Amino acid sequence: MKLTDIRDNSGAKKSRIRVGRGIGSGKGKTGGRGVKGQKARAGVAVKGFEGGQMPLYRRLPKRGFTNIFAKDLNEVNLGRIQQAVDAKKLDVTKPVTQASLVEAGVLSKLRDGVKILGQGEFKAKLAFEVAGASKSAQAAIEKAGGSVKILTAAGEATA
Predict the structure, then answer these.
(1) Looking at the domain assignment, is residue 99 inside a domain?
(2) Could you tell me the CATH number of the domain that includes residue 93?
(3) CA-to-CA distance for 131 and 71, rounded, in angstroms?
(4) 118, 78 contact by CB (below 8 A)
(5) 51: left (phi over 0), alpha (psi -120 to 50) or beta
């Protein structure tokens, strides 16, 4: 057997049908589109149209809303922050902010703030300045000897 002898299995590649190339091809004249009407024309997509019956998207009730005041927060577990500390990517002497977490590679981009979650083992003594922290995360940080400062929307710290 030679490299030039290698072929696809018969029927593995199906050649496409060229539409509208004369009646002898079997797909000539109307090109498989039937006769006249809206769908015989180019650029027509009647999605959701049910022949005059009330469409499904109008039969179903409207639900919910979009909260325009919702904050898009980065969520970080304590275990991930501990990994960054162990890898010497986070400076233990400075407070941990959203900018410092992005710089350390813990977060990919800045958003409306950071929320610290309590998953994972945490033993570093760090000062956090973040938009939020879960109760378990606050307890773990204070147990390790650190502190948590919750920032308001404007970025100032609250007590």
Answers:
(1) yes
(2) 3.100.10.10
(3) 10
(4) yes
(5) left
User: How far is residue 102's CA from residue 149's CA, in Å, rounded to a whole number?
Assistant: 18
In whole angstroms, what is the distance from residue 107 CA to residue 6 CA?
A: 50
Q: Average pLDDT in the 18-47 region?
A: 89
Q: Which domain does 106 fall in, by range?
A: 73-150
- CA 33, CA 31: separation in Å to the nearest integer? 6
**pTM of the predicted model as reported, rounded to 2 decimal places:** 0.59
Instruction: Decide: 43 and 49 in contact? Cβ < 8 Å.
Output: no
Q: Are 98 and 114 in contact (CB under 8 A)?
A: yes
Confidence of residue 116 (pLDDT cuts 50, 70, 90): very high
Confidence of residue 159 (pLDDT cuts 50, 70, 90): low
